[in-house]
Specification:
Layout: H1 4-11, H2 17-28, H3 30-33, H4 38-45, H5 49-58, H6 64-77, H7 90-111, H8 114-125, E1 129-134, H9 138-149, E2 155-158, H10 162-170, E3 177-182, H11 188-199, E4 204-208, H12 214-218, E5 221-224, H13 235-257, H14 259-276
Parallel strand pairs: 1-2, 1-3, 3-4, 4-5
């Protein structure tokens, strides 16, 4: 189960005032919370049990008990945040960076939902074209996906320029899929692409670090990358590694489903390369 602190960070974008109060209480009183019933927590925080239950589900837990279990595991792990210091030796700095990346990958993997992954696979398997879009650093993730899906029988669509992405998106139909990557889930240009998907009834898969963002509310499926910000590396850089891993996961699941066709395509490309040489 994902680190509780990181999960809060991923889902905090659109917390209500009461949810923000509850989140702060839980962060400051983790050990105490694991000993409380939902009614006792309600009494202690002056927040209704309905709000607490809804808060747990908004974080991706089945119920309050599952949330408490995550907090308990978070305490047992006792994995303090690793901060990079200018005084670190090159080897120490490298070790910390690798640890931060590993923590990000573990937290993201634990936050992934099997049902959401199945839905993504079904959408992609039944699409004619797969539009892969992202702005800024997210464009790197989209390009990685484009490069991977070129090896499949699915036709991937990609453009680095935003205006070109808009034109490519406008060529998609309800029989296609848009896979959009946005770290914040609030990027204006990414929202414009999502609007195109909505207007044209194009199924939208979103990879983001903000589970409750504006974009996530427009998506058919949202896959969340979980990352913690550090002083010298903003969380977007950690999230990039997690998002590429999510994209690789989607590709691999599609590859397994269509392995015969993919193998044929790869052999065909290898043969063409050898012939040119």
């Amino acid at each position: 189960m994902a680190n509780f602190n990181l999960r809060l960070q991923a889902y905090q974008a659109n917390f209500s005032d009461k949810e923000k109060e509850l989140a702060q209480f839980l962060l400051k009183n983790q050990a105490q919370t694991t000993q409380l019933t939902i009614s006792e927590l309600s009494h202690r925080t002056n927040i209704s049990t309905a709000t607490i239950s809804r808060f747990a589900k908004n974080l991706g837990f089945d119920n309050f008990q599952a949330l408490k279990l995550c907090i308990a595991q978070n305490i047992e792990t006792n994995n303090p945040h690793v901060e990079i210091s200018p005084a670190d030796s090159p080897k120490t700095m490298a070790k910390k960076i690798f640890k931060l990346n590993v923590d990000t990958l573990n937290a993201t993997e634990n936050a992934l939902n099997g049902k959401d992954l199945d839905q993504c696979v079904n959408l992609i398997l039944n699409t004619k074209k797969l539009g892969l879009f992202g702005l800024g650093a997210s464009n790197i993730v989209a390009l990685n996906g484009f490069h991977k899906f070129l090896r499949t029988t699915i036709e991937p669509i990609y453009a680095s320029d935003f205006h070109m992405q808009l034109m490519e998106a406008a060529r998609l139909s309800k029989n296609d899929v848009m896979l959009l990557v946005s770290h914040s889930g609030e990027n204006r240009d990414a929202l414009a692409l999502a609007e195109v998907a909505k207007e044209r009834n194009i199924p939208l898969i979103l990879i983001t670090s903000s589970a409750n963002s504006t974009l996530s509310k427009k998506a058919d499926v949202t896959l969340v990358s979980v990352a913690e910000e550090s002083l010298y590396r903003p969380d977007a850089l950690h999230a990039l590694i997690a998002q590429i891993s999510i994209m690789d996961t989607l590709f691999m699941m599609i590859a397994i489903k269509t392995k015969r066709n993919i193998a044929t395509n790869i052999r065909h490309e290898i043969d063409k390369t050898r012939n040119r040489q």
